[in-house]
Amino acid sequence: MKRTPVPTKKPAQKPRVDSRQGKWRQMMLFLLVGGALLGTLAVSVIVAVYSQWAKEFDLTQLGQMPERTVVYDLKGEVLGRMHGENRIVVPLNEVSPWFIKALLAREDSRFYHHSGIDYVGVARAAMRNMKDGRIVQGASTLTMQLARNSYTELGDDRNIHRKLLEMMLARRIEKHCTKDQIIEHYVNRIFFGPGLYGIQRASQVYFGKHASQLSLSEAALIAGIVRSPVRFSPFRNYDGAIKERNDVLQRMLATKMITREEELEARYTEVVLHAQPALQHQGGYALDMVRQDLDLILEKQEVEDGGLQVFTTIHKDLQVAAESAVENRLTAVETLGSYKHPTKAEFDAAWDGSTEVSATPYLQAAVTLLDNSTGGILAIVGGRDYRHSKYNRATQGERQIGSTVKPFVYAAGVASGFLPGTWIDDAPIKPGEIQGGDPSWNPQNSDGKFLGLKTVTDGLVLSRNTMTVRLGNHAGLDRVLNLLADSGFPMPKIRTPQIFIGNMGGNVRQLASAMSIFPNQGVRRRPFLIQRIVDKAGVVIYQTPVLEAEIVNPGVAHVMRQMLSQVMERGTAAVVRSEHGFKEPGGGKTGTTNDYKDAWFAGYTERLTCGVWVGLDKPQTIIDQGYGGRLSLPIWADLMKEAVKKGYKSNLAKAGLPLTRVSICRRSSQLATDSCHQAGMAYQDTLPYELVPQNFCLEHRGLGPPVAQPQGNSAGSGNGFWTRIKRWFQ
Fold first, then answer.
1. What are 606-631's pLDDT values in tens digits?
2. What residues pair up with 663 in beta bridges, in sequence order?
């Protein structure tokens, strides 16, 4: 039997593996792992490099925010702000909690859950940007924004380099500062609109309130415009700002920072804007002077950085009173029928506000009020309207000072030996009589009259030109010019005896400072405006010393006070008592230039000295009979009466100079003899000891000088001198 062979079963063969495919897989794995390692290494290098780069930034700069320099008056009231950025830094606990919540909801809702970089936000922004194919969403945290706003070195370009540096710097900031410190720096630093920095100024400008008082609706609106404060400024785009507010409220609701009820109430709350301009007009002649003085005292960068506290000598109430007195009195002058020039009201109505003018066509004035004890300027007015013209007539103007120069001529005369009762002839000046003068010069008196022999006191009180010229001639032009220069006036370019009656330039600050030597017992204290300057750290970096110098001796100052007081009682300024009701003891002098182009008055009390000028910028006759006593004196009286109300009263009990009663000859200014009495030339006067003549009159024995030529105060020692002195005092 034939066997059928049984087929043998072949063993199953393993599938053949393509060696090339395996190699590709290995290569891909290698590349993936290698790429991951390289990527990690690259990221590590980038992080290390940018972290190191971020260490170069000074983190103390986060809190160094330029603020505007604040200027205070002598009572600590704010006069204005200047320089620096329009910012007021406030601590976080003085910011409304509603604003903090609104800001976080709008800008960084995960602020308290990241360390400077919000990786969740980065991923979300990346996905959104990839979807839209362009950058529509950023991932900047509050900390990153703070870094960007704090360091200008980061630049404004939107590139990967800046973003990486910003991120590393944010991480460093988070390690250096607490979360609350970061928010505090942020809300004080960021830009809220043109010229607006920090939440405090934003709150003041938009709503007229402190940042701590912001309501939910107001806080949401300010937070809403942070990303584009110019575009969504509620002053320019109210509807846009409201839309942004509503978006913020919706975000606050979504992040559970507010309830639905709070969201609805805030959404339907009407937003009332304060409508205060971001950069208020911080002008005024006083502040302009502060700016100029700061430029002289400090380095340019110190001034421009701002953040200083400048304490001035200005008394805010008296500054307002000075400005009001000027405006009220000059407005009244403009209503007079004899006034033929444009009025300020007419100019204002036609002025478009776009440009200032160098010279206004309407009547102007300037005032300087000084504290006699220090020289501090309590009030200064450089014109009627700083908007119209920045030209400061109190300090920059130079006009002929007229008869206000006469007290200094008379002081020089007294210092050279003349006394209040000495006679001087009020008669026409003879050709060649005045040394250094034009032989044909023939000055007249304002009333066109000549009164004959009158006393030195009468010459000043009645403002007699011919008497003043003769007195100045006897005292000497050099003595008068030196006294004027020592008193603070610029030395005249041309030396002429016409200076004796006011043919020289000056301004009211110089005049007030010079006049103050008389109530100050002969001492002039340099006028100043800035008391001290305090920097951001609270350190006093500058303090103005009181600088003083004796210009005339106390005896001369005493005699001048006696004579100048009579100007107010019976002289050219007597209306200050009779019409204007000013009762304080004091003295002063009016001044009027030719053709009534300038009207002056400078006067003082024990506590204060004030100078006033009235005129037109382009010298013209103001009005007919426009004397200083008529135009300037009323302004002085109004201001000084207000000063008395504010406490600047004269002290009744005050020690004076030792005085003695003596008998003087009117012709020689020497001690009177029996012959002087017999000739009717002797008079009694009370003088300071230092001004008591040392010699007896020789005039009436036929041995002396002619009329009005005193022999000086040199001591005599003839036989029987002390016996005659003893008998004379008895």
1. 999 999 999 999 999 999 999 999 99
2. 684
Residues 6+ apart with CB under 8 A from 654: 606
| Euclidean distance between CA atoms 100 and 115, whole angstroms | 18
* Closest of 263, 242, 205, 221 to residue 88, by C-alpha: 205
Mean pLDDT throughout 517-534? 96
Which residue in this structure is represented by tokens 């991923």? 123
Residue at 128: amino acid letter:
R
What per-residue confidence (pLDDT) applies to 651? 79
Rounded (5°) CA angle 654-658-660: 130
CA distance 659 to 473: 29
Average pLDDT value for residue range 187-205: 89
SS3 category, 323: helix
Count other Cβ atoms within 10 Å, centred on residue 635. 27
Say what the pTM is.
0.76
d(CA 578, CA 250): 73
- Count of beta carbons in the 10 Å neighbourhood of residue 565: 17
Task: Retrieve residue 314's tokens.
Answer: 């200005």
With both helix axes pointing from N to C terminus, report the angle between 465-475 and 406-415 in degrees, rounded to the nearest 10.
Answer: 40
DSSP string, 534-579: E-TTS-EEEE----EEESS-HHHHHHHHHHHHHHHHHSTTTHHHHT
CA atoms within 13 A on the CB side of 640: 33
Query: Residue range 440-461: average pLDDT?
Result: 94
Q: Map out the domains of the chain with their CATH numbers.
A: 34-64+111-177 (no CATH), 399-526+545-645 (3.40.710.10), 659-729 (no CATH)
Tokens for 571? Answer: 């002289």
Residue 167: pLDDT band (50, 70, 90) is confident
85 CB contacts (<8 Å, ≥6 apart)? 65, 66, 67, 68, 197, 306
Tokens describing residue 388: 């119209």
Provide DSSP, 16-49.
PP-HHHHHHHHHHHHHHHHHHHHHHHHHHHHHHH
Angle subtended at Cα 306 by Cα 302 and Cα 312, rounded to the nearest 5 degrees: 95
Helix axes 160-176, 142-150, angle to 10 degrees: 100
Please, which pLDDT band fits residue 724 given cuts at 50, 70 and 90? Answer: very low
